[in-house]
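Colleagues,

Please find the record for the two-part complex below.
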Amino acid sequence: MSTESPSEIRTAAILGLGLIGGSLARDLSARGVRVLGWDADAASLRAAVEEGVVHHALAGDLRDVGRADAVVLAVPVLAAPELLRRLVPHLDGVRLVTDVGSTKTSIVEAAQSLGIGARFVGSHPLAGDHRSGWSASRAGLFEDARVFLTRAPSTTPAAMHLASALWTGVGGRPELIDMHMHDVQLAWRSHLPQVVSTALALTIAETGTVPADLGPGGRDVTRLAGSDPAMWADILVDNADALASALAKMSAQLSELADRVARGDRDALLRLFADARKWHQQGP
Amino acid sequence: MSTESPSEIRTAAILGLGLIGGSLARDLSARGVRVLGWDADAASLRAAVEEGVVHHALAGDLRDVGRADAVVLAVPVLAAPELLRRLVPHLDGVRLVTDVGSTKTSIVEAAQSLGIGARFVGSHPLAGDHRSGWSASRAGLFEDARVFLTRAPSTTPAAMHLASALWTGVGGRPELIDMHMHDVQLAWRSHLPQVVSTALALTIAETGTVPADLGPGGRDVTRLAGSDPAMWADILVDNADALASALAKMSAQLSELADRVARGDRDALLRLFADARKWHQQGP
């Protein structure tokens, strides 16, 4: 792991010190970047300063954010556009504004309409797990993680370069992707599995079954039910259109299986389960 | 791990040498029990003999099965009743007949109606994973595993004692449970998660997404899709009634979440996700 600072970024402002923002602050700080920090939770901000990860706690009006080369919004996706609006008057010296949200279209469109599209790059690092908050943050979270980068219509090559350097500097692997394609892909690959896992947990919970009653398989399938509710409520609402199609297909598939079970159609079940296993056996 | 032989069982016949039957044969053989073996797949039976796990390969007519103190059926659940019917004329010296299936009502009722209820105990060891077959079998599979035991109306205390000794001898923890309660519990705790995981895999597969495209969460939720199709087609058909209720509740829960997503009802989603996390946080 490199200990050089991400090229050209001497000062970074991290707004939101949860699992992702806190971990990024740790990695940047460890590489010699001066970190300005802010969090809605005063205790998290104080802890980050006391641990020496955040060098300067930003006041709530965020007016000092302009001292940073790069500003990273690491707040829930529905809170990000409003935070971005509040930042706009204070971004004078800032060369890159980015975020870490699991949906990209809404925040990129907000940046464009606020007139800061040139300096804005939407980021989505595929890192983290079902834990959340400053206490879950840790060094090295982005090591070898894919990081999706999405541009606004007016994003400059210089801003893209800086965003790429930011994530490469903490071990990530940036990939450029169209923001709409990103959101549709994530609806199927991430948001759908999350909703299915939560729905299964709620269904099982109604019977009085506790997690310890499940075997290893059942525990795997319900693991994502432990995810952060506020973060996910935001993501689902923000990506509702793309997710609706995925959920409709999932419901239809579940109905087909239920119908085959009810009819005792062993041949059809065998065929469907064989198709699913064939898919699973592709790896990774 | 004890290396004594399970008390009172000197010779055991294992019919079906897949993951469960093969692993049981390995453990019994290692503890000095003489193992008579049979498998529908000649190559598996030959391998088990060549490895010294099975001491005597039973002929297809199974007439020598009566030499065993205990007979274990370790075949798919829909095949078990017919195999049991074929065994009946040859069970003269046998003091225990048991099985390893994931459903219990149908096999226990078959044993009772075939007139061998006194010597029959239904077993269901909670062991194994999504791999299957002789090649997946291994020593120690039942170490510390829960093993559900279900009695027929006429099962004798002596047969119950022998079944308990069989599983305790290979490291398992036997628990007596009513056969109907077993099947309903398993529908919710095991069969439902299996169907949900398979349905999700089939849904995602339709988009051209491969497992490597998923994050760790999505891979957890789809892991059971790799399970043995033939084994599961049998289980689902055999437990269709209990599973139908569970699937109906799951569909309703998924519909409710989809409806909240479509309406952008963040408060309701937050509440539902918080309920699911609260359930998940009960451990284990």
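The CA atoms of residues 43 and 72 of chain A lie 20 Å apart.

Comments are welcome before we finalize the supplementary table.
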